[in-house]
Prior knowledge:
The protein is an alpha+beta fold and 335 residues long. The protein has helices spanning 2-5, 12-24, 29-35, 53-64, 67-82, 84-91, 96-110, 142-155, 157-160, 177-181, 199-202, 211-224, 226-249, 255-261, 266-275, 280-295, 303-309, 315-326, 330-334; strands at residues 9-11, 49-51, 114-120, 124-131, 165-168, 184-187, 194-198.
Amino acid sequence: MVAAAAQHQVSEWVMQYYSQQALLVGVPEAKLNALGGWHKSGKAISGNMVDSTKVVKLHKLLHEYGYQETLEIQATKALFESDQVNFALISNAKSVAAMLTRLLEACQYNLSYFQYSIRTGETSVRINIEYSEQSFAFYSPQSVMYLVGYLIKRIFPEQFGEYSMQIGVVQSSVPDHDAIAEYFQIHCNVDCAYIDIPKALYELKNRSWNPHVHEYLESLYSEHFPDASKRNKLIEAVKSLILQTFETEYHKPSIEQISGHLNMSRSTLYRNLSDSNVTFKELVELQRKEFAAKYVKDPQKSLTEISEILGYSSISAFTRAFKRWFSVSPSAWRS
Length: 335
């Protein structure tokens, strides 16, 4: 992981923010000073970049002193439960699958660096979780994993004990092991973080689901969060146009092309997406992934052709991206 992280640069403010968080969980100031003293007020300068190997060292310190368990996981759960409308919507989901889709979409909407994909196998469903390389801020997916396990156990308590769920983390160890192990079997040193859920559990219906209550909650959510509804519609429209360009015009679209379809200027689309905590580049990447997953299965399209449509310079570049998305090569996915 250290070798891979060294290829990135991160903003100074990332170091400052998490150095200050480190102080809250008792990391000695001397250790933070040794990393550059980023926790000191006024040290970080917006736009300045830092070698991300320093972030990896800070990451290890945070885990060593229990940051994830004492602050991040608990704060994630508290923040989620404080929004009663959102919690009611998810807890009244029709099935485990519907609940997880709503949860992951909410994470993706609120966290521009968060991406996920779902792959259904014969006996299990795998949710791959990753954070965009452009926003390498050593976030780990474990707070999301914790929330998935927590919600399934809370909403489906009778069935929870019948199934065994597994997660994979890219770290060599999980210091907050006990909090995570309550819900999952843990595998370390994997290429891409994932959650494996038995298919029977994933498809499990919610016996207390009420369609009339759900309809009411949906309308209540739209009433209380009109901007979120509007932004979601814009994001979905942009994603749809990007995928349509891949499928019908066989090339990677530009932001000028998509903004033209939406009858707005490039700068307006850029600003609206920025207000929604997402970038055009990230949406293109998401649709690249969707197109690849769909058409790699199509024997009438060669992998070279798919690579060219998606705008990759070579088949090897496409293969690396595909393995990053799904943890398998496109040829293995096709077989």
